[in-house]
Amino acid sequence: MKVDGRHIRSIWLEPDGHTVSAIDQRRLPHQFVVAQLTGCADAADAIRSMLVRGAPLIGATAAYGVALAMRADSSDAALDRAYSMLIATRPTAINLKWALEEMRSMLRPLSSPDRAAAAYSRAAEIAEDDVAINRGIGQHGLALIEKIAATKKPGERVNVLTHCNAGWLATVDWGTATAPIYLAHDRGQAIHVWVDETRPRNQGASLTAWELGHHGVAHTVIPDNTGGHLMQHRMVDLVIVGTDRVTASGDVCNKIGTYLKALAAHDNGVPFYVALPSPTIDFSVDDGIAEIPIEQRAAEEVATMTGRTADGRIETVRIVPDNSPVANYGFDVTPARLVTGLITERGVLKADRAALSAAFPERIAAAAE
Question: Where is this site: Transition state stabilizer (predicted)?
Fold first, then answer.
C-alpha cells in the first residue's frame, strides 16, 4: 500500500537476492525504520519481538527465515533447527506453522545444494500468494460495503469498526480486514473507520491509524470500550476484524477484546465479519475455546506505555503501581454463533464446518496427513 505516496510492502527481498527487509512495527507510528534480516535467528527474533506481527506476515517472515537458514547451511540438521527455532516464537497464529510445514515438506526431498534457491523461491511464492489472497478478500468484502452504501443517502459514509491491526502491516500487502476498506476508498466510496486503540500494545492506535492516514482513509481512533456505545447509537454499519486462527467449526481467535465487540454487535444487530486468508483456517481444531493456545505476553506491555513527548522524545512510562500483578492474555475466542460471515478469498462463508469444508477441501486433506 502507500506511505507518503510511495508503494511499499511490509516485507521484501533486497536486490542482493538474499537479505530480507521488513518494517519495524515496534517503532511506529513515530518512527519509520526498516530492519534487515540476514539470518534465521534474525527472522525468529523479528517474530518473537513483534518487529513483525499479524498472522499472515508472521507466516511469510518464517518462510524467509527458513530460506536464510538454508543459505547458511542447507543440511537436514539445519532445516530441523530452523523449523524448531521459528515454530517456538509465537504459539497462537496458525499461519506460522502452516508456512513452516510448507517449507519443510518442500525442502526435505531436495538435495542439499538445491535447497537455498528453492527456499527463497517458495518464500517469495508465499508472499505473493498472500498479496493475491488479500486482494481477493478485498473484492468479496467490498461487495458487503457497497450493499450497505446502497441503502445510504448520496455522499453518506459507511462506518466500519475494526479491532487491532488487520491491515497491510499485518500481511504482505492490502491487509485482511482493511482490504475491502482500501478498495472502497480507492473507488471513491465514502467510508469512515472507527479504529479501536487495542490495548495493551495499541496496534489500532499506532498501526491501523498510521496506515489508514497515509493512504488517505477517513478514520477516528477510539478507546477499546467505545464500540458498544457507538453500536447502540447506530454509528457502526458493520464490524470487520482479522484473525490469527479459525477452527474447523468457525470459531475465531483474534486479538483480546474481539469477543466483546462480537457480543456488542450481536446485541445491536450490527453485522460482524471476520476477514481471513485460507492458511489461517486450522482444520485440526474444532473447539476454539478449549483447544487454541492463548499466548500470555509480558506484564510490561500492560504496565507501561510508550509515546512521543511534546519536545519529540520517545519515552516509556509506567502506568501501573509497582506492586500490582498484571495478566496479559494476547487473544480471545469468538464463538462461531456470533460471526455473521467469514470473508475469504473464495467468498463470504458461513462460520461453520460445512461452508469451510466445501470452500477449502484441499486444506482438509492437508490437515489429515
Answer: 164
Q: Residue 368: its pLDDT value, please?
A: 61
Long-range contacts from 224-229, C-beta under 8 angstroms, 24+ separation: 224/163, 224/196, 224/197, 224/198, 224/199, 224/257, 226/194, 226/196, 227/161, 227/163, 227/194, 227/196, 227/260, 227/261, 227/264, 228/260, 228/261, 228/264, 228/267, 228/268
* Residue 217 sits in the same domain as residue 325: yes
| Joined grid coordinates for residue 180 | 475491502
Q: What is the CATH number of the domain that holds 253?
A: 3.40.50.10470
- Does residue 278 sit in the same domain as residue 207? yes
Name residues whose C-beta falls within 8 Å of residue 86's C-beta, 6 or more positions apart in sequence. Answer: 40, 43, 44, 47, 62, 65, 66, 96, 100
Reported pTM: 0.91
Task: Indicate the residue among 96, 128, 160 that finishes a domain.
Answer: 128
Place of cell 456470533: 338
pLDDT single digits (tens) 149-165: 999 998 899 999 999 99
Q: Which of 112, 106, 99, 115 is nearest to 280 (CA)?
A: 99
Please identify, among 128, 151, 171, the residue that sits at the C-terminal boundary of a domain: 128
Q: pLDDT tens, 273-286? A: 999 999 899 999 99
Average pLDDT over all residues of the chain: 94
Q: Binding site residues for substrate, as ranges?
A: 53-55, 90, 203, 254-255
Which one of 173, 244, 251, 332 is the catalytic residue?
Answer: 244
Count structural domains, the chain. 2
pLDDT digits (tens, 9 = 90+) for 292-345: 999 999 999 999 999 999 999 999 999 999 999 999 999 999 999 999 999 999
CATH number at residue 119: 1.20.120.420
Residue 251 annotated as catalytic:
no
C-alpha distances in Å from residue 275, one per residue of 55, 92, 172, 347: 12, 17, 15, 10
Shared domain check, 169 and 314? yes
Cβ atoms of residues 343 and 141 within 8 Å: yes
Report the binding-site residues.
53-55, 90, 203, 254-255
